[in-house]
Every structure is written in structure tokens, then in C-alpha cells.
Design a protein that fits this description.
Length: 438
């Protein structure tokens, strides 16, 4: 049975090869392709993809290039030799020259990151002679469930965030296959070899990485995360969070308004009894207790709080569903990069950060960051950290050199890893020239 939100497709039972070393992106793409009926074989290296190709020829392939252990053109050519149409996605190979070279090698299409997920699905369908998929509204799997009394919840996130003017300029984009990513062979891939087709475990794809994947794929749909009886949902439109819901009572909009002193619990219950079919925000707006601007502010903060509260979940599961967000939502769009960066700063613990960012690890820039630095609200001390993270220094070195407390330093570095701005590499000697951001 196909997940709700996507109608059945002629892709049903088609074997599809998916190559990506980004677990979050692989999870989202695998979910979307599986929802169309495809049987997805997911790999994280070029050699694994070639082995899968030799075992059983897929009907089509989606390749996230480049990969550290295989040349892009040779990998595409091998797929073409077996008659397997390949759709390439990339944040490094960009522009008409790269597209022309990939097509000469045998690629069916090239989509530059960030790319619309629906365009990728349509390209795969076209490669197989199938009609483009048709989507309907994504279901809200959360708000219909029984509200839970909360346990410990994160600190109140309804704070005014400081902003910093973004640095001028823009990162030059690589043009053509003749310009390979710097030091690609040093990147150490730590993700598992496969991601589940429609749902998976947060131990392998944490919420921040999933949100990054939704941004990279410019996805419109809903991400549901669960841990025991607790469920949360974040809906995105073209990769930007626009709606969130939770079955934790304290995270409902009415409970937030009571905590903020906008309405008393008794008055809210009376309003609900008088109009049981109305949304809480509409009731408070009609009663003159809430202005449209204040409502938008609180809903935006609610989205952040619900997303942040799941940032450290590793013993839960996720489920992605393509489809349009709820039609009754407010017209809001949160910046995914700032949501992730602020959430890592505010909602992660030092214990978790030390466990997931070893002191001996070395970090260096990726050639294909998911977010441009100029678009993020990065503080001056954080910008200095990015300059220092050139592969020659360990995490413990960066903490010592930082002008900020250890937790703040690790939170920023981990946010950069989640946003694929920095990645763990083998140690680089001080004399080695590396790509930098400044």
C-alpha cells in the first residue's frame, strides 16, 4: 500500500539505484521514490553502486555526485553501458559545461543543488517512460492523535534572536567536470550504506540532517518524527518550514498562549466550548486577545520549538511524506538554515555534542555546502572558527582557539556539519593548501 499523499505510479516495482553519501538526503529521496512504487537500492559509495549494478541491473539510477571513490564521468558511462538511465544531482558540477559533459557520458539529466524534488521525480519517471507523479495534500499524522501530558521540555524558545549582517560576496561555483572537488578523497563517509525506503531510525539520520535534506531537495511535504508515544510533524514548502504540530500538550498553540499570558486556561476552554470547530488561533483573534502579527510571531516560534525539541532524538524514527502542506496553515516560511543553526545553539547539550563531535576529529570545508554562508546569521566569532577549520586542526584545537565557551563552539561546529558546510576529514598537514571560505 502506497503512503498517502502520492497517487500510484507506473514506477511500481521498478528497481531504482540511489547513490548518495548524505544519509539525510538519501532518506528523503528514497522515501519519495518508494512512495511512487519504486524498489530503491541505496548505496553511499561509487564502488558499492557498481557492485549493485553488477548484481542486478536497475531500471534507472539517481546519482548524487561527486563521490570520493569513483569518477563522475566514468560512473555515468558505466551505467550508460548497461542501458541504465541516470539522473545526476550535484552541488559541485554546475552550469552548461558540466551538464554537457555529463550528458556526453550518458546521463539523462543534471539537477543542481538545491533542486526541486518534484523535478527529480518527474525526471526519473520520464527516463522510464512513465507520466510525472501527481501529489495531493499531505496528511497531518499528529494533531489527530491524543495530546500527551509533557515530560521535561526544552527552555522557552520565544526569544528575540540577534542578527548579524551577512558577509558580502558569494562563493564561486565550480563549472564543469574538469574541476573536481578539492581533497575529495579525504572526506570520511560515516553514514550507513543504505537508508530505509519510507521510514528510518533517527540514529542514522538525525532531525537537523533531515531538515537540511528537505532544503537541498526543495521539498514540499511533511516530516513526522516519533519517539515512543510522542509524535511531531514539520511541514515544509520548497524546503522551508511552514507548519509544525505536536501531540505533546505543552507544545500546542493554546498551551503556549496560556503560558505567555495571552489568555487564561479557563477563558480558553470557554471559547472552545462556544465554538468547538474553530482553531485556537482563530478563536483568540476573533475575541480580540491576539493580533494577526502576534499570532504569526507565536506560530513561528512554535515551529522552531517543536523542531528543536527533537534535535537530540536518536532513539526515535522518522517518516517522510511528499504532498502539499495543510491548507489551513498561516502564510509563514522560516529560513531552514537559521532554524538549524539557532536550534543547535539553543537546544543541544554539551554531553551530546562531545559524543558526536570527537575531540580528535579534524574538520574542513565541503566543496558543496547545503547553505551559502552569506545567507546565515553567523556571528563574528563563528566566522573566525570557519576560517580556522581548514583540516589542520582538531576539534579540541578549535575549542582552545575559540573566543566562545566549549558548548557554544561545539554547537556551531556541529551545526556546520549538519548543514554540510564542514565535514570530518583525515588530518591535513599545515603545509597542505586547502579550499577556504575567506
Amino acid at each position: 500500500m502506497l503512503p498517502s499523499g502520492v497517487v500510484p505510479s507506473p514506477l511500481a516495482r521498478k528497481r531504482l539505484l540511489l547513490l548518495s553519501d548524505d544519509t539525510g538526503l538519501a532518506a528523503v529521496l528514497s522515501s519519495a521514490l518508494s512512495a511512487l512504487g519504486g524498489v530503491v537500492v541505496s548505496t553511499s559509495s561509487g564502488q558499492d553502486a557498481l557492485r549493485a549494478l553488477a548484481t542486478s541491473r536497475p531500471a534507472a539510477a539517481v546519482l548524487d555526485l561527486p563521490v570520493a571513490d569513483a569518477g563522475a564521468a566514468s560512473l555515468v558511462a558505466e551505467l550508460a553501458r548497461t542501458g541504465t538511465p541516470a539522473v545526476v544531482i550535484s552541488g559541485v558540477y554546475r552550469g552548461p559545461r558540466a551538464a554537457a559533459e555529463l550528458r556526453r557520458a550518458g546521463a539523462r539529466d543534471l539537477l543542481e543543488k538545491p533542486f526541486p524534488l518534484d523535478a527529480l521525480l518527474a525526471s526519473v519517471a520520464d527516463a522510464l517512460g512513465a507520466p510525472p507523479p501527481t501529489q495531493v495534500d499531505a496528511e497531518d499524522e499528529v494533531t489527530g492523535s491524543t495530546p500527551l501530558m509533557p515530560g521535561p521540555i526544552p527552555a522557552d524558545p520565544f526569544l528575540v534572536l540577534d542578527s548579524v549582517e551577512p558577509p558580502p560576496g558569494r562563493r564561486p561555483e565550480a563549472e564543469g567536470l574538469a574541476r573536481p572537488p578539492p581533497d575529495a578523497g579525504q572526506v570520511r563517509v560515516t553514514q550507513p550504506d543504505a537508508s530505509p525506503p519510507t521510514e528510518g531510525h533517527l540514529a542514522y539520520a538525525a532531525v537537523p540532517r533531515l531538515l537540511v535534506a528537505l532544503h537541498v531537495g526543495q521539498v514540499t511535504g511533511a516530516l513526522t518524527v516519533s519517539r515512543g508515544p510522542v509524535k511531531k510533524i514539520v511541514a515544509v514548502e520548497r524546503g522551508a518550514p511552514v507548519y509544525a504540530a505536536s501531540n505533546v500538550a505543552a507544545e500546542r498553540f493554546g498551551a503556549i498562549c496560556v503560558r505567555r499570558g495571552i489568555v487564561t486556561r479557563g477563558a480558553l476552554e470557554e471559547l472552545r466550548r462556544a465554538s468547538p470547530d474553530q482553531r485556537t488561533g482563530d478563536l483568540l483573534l476573533a475575541a480580540g486577545l491576539l493580533s494577526p502579527e502576534r499570532r504569526a510571531e507565536l506560530v513561528s516560534a512554535q515551529i522552531r520549538a517543536i523542531a528543536w525539541s527533537a534535535f537530540e532524538w536518536r532513539d526515535g524514527s522518522y517518516h517522510f511524506q511528499a504532498g502539499r502542506p495543510p491548507s489551513s496553515r498561516l502564510a509563514l516560511r522560516l529560513d531552514a538554515g537559521d532554524l538549524i543553526l539557532d536550534g543547535m545553539r539553543r537546544a543541544t547539550t554539551l554531553e551530546r555534542l562531545r559524543a558526536e563531535l570527537p575531540a580528535e576529529a579534524h574538520l574542513a570545508p565541503r566543496p558543496d555546502p547545503a547553505f551559502e554562508l552569506y545567507a546565515l546569521r553567523i556571528q563574528p566569532a563563528e566566522a573566525r572558527l570557519i576560517v580556522l577549520a581548514d583540516g589542520t586542526k582538531s576539534v579540541s584545537d578549535l575549542v582552545r582557539l575559540s573566543e566562545r565557551p566549549e558548548r557554544d563552539t561545539l554547537a556551531f561546529l556541529q551545526a556546520c556539519r549538519a548543514m554540510r558546510i564542514l565535514d570530518e576529514v583525515t588530518r591535513v598537514l599545515a603545509s597542505t593548501r586547502r579550499m577556504g571560505f575567506m
